[in-house]
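User: Fold this, then the next.

Assistant: Folding the first:
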Amino acid sequence: MDDLFEGRPTLAALREQARGCTACPLHEQATQTVFGEGPDDARLVLVGEQPGDQEDLQGRPFVGPAGQLLDWSLEKAGIDRATTYITNAVKHFKWFPRGKRRIHSKPGTLEIKACRPWLDQELALIQPEVLVCLGATAAQALLGASIRVMRDRGRWLASDLAPHVMVTVHPSSLLRIEDDALRKDSIRQFVRELRLIPEVLSS
């Protein structure tokens, strides 16, 4: 894959190159590559795990139920999604069939490593001031296996990837909380963590 990145590519060129990525078997069952989306000069980058069913069909990150919750949470936190670059650690949807439904399956280490060059290039081109990892897959892919989301969430971590780096939960995990009161409380905590972002961007 190294020959794809000669010189200084643009995000648009990377997105086009990624359409044909066959670095791991996930491309065989996915509808399409789902690359990152947002402005080239975004000050904030959000990194999730992988596309879901709706993302795979539409070719855009975070447009399904988790994306809708993320959009709502960003708005509550005073963050404009249009100025934010949003991507995933893995660019193809990994799933297994259950009747007529496609059920999300957690990507493995080899699949995450296969996609890492794309993510590295996205971050290198954007050079964000703030990087937020949504969920354990993104956090451990970028920050190492020692990161624990529930232990380390909601605080600024030292990293060479950006001046300000944070890990928090993936919005899909909030949607899976069955207890209504607990789910609402967890969403409020998620929003409180996102509100730390405008604070550092305005300082």
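Now the next one, as you asked:
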Amino acid sequence: MAMTTPSADAETTLFEGRPAAIPGIGALLLAIVTLGLAALYFLIRSQGVLYKVTTKRVLVERGILSKRLEQVDVYRIKDFVVERPFGQRIMGTGNILLLTMDPTTQEVKLKDLKTDVVGLYERLRAAAESERVRRGVRILDNE
């Protein structure tokens, strides 16, 4: 019986999940003041978004009844921005903004991630660099 080992080209999931229903202190206070009605709204809104970040691509699926799927290959990401406002840091959430070379999707915002966003950024940055090297892609600054 032959054993197969994963190749270097294998796609590995770095993060998969939905945004936090209550991403920051402001949303928490609003939920308390409205006696939970805002929390219900935030929960439904968060269920309408699914993020999947792998070593090869970033997928964002939006919608509850109608769905829209956006995909960006990680080798097309040219810049990363990690946002962790005070209210989100307290709640353990954060955002990652991806600036890409993709003509149809020049900006992808992964909002309200309930994970270590700095760690995810580091893993995604390393995966993007690895994919660029593997494909022989270089990013040139024209400025």
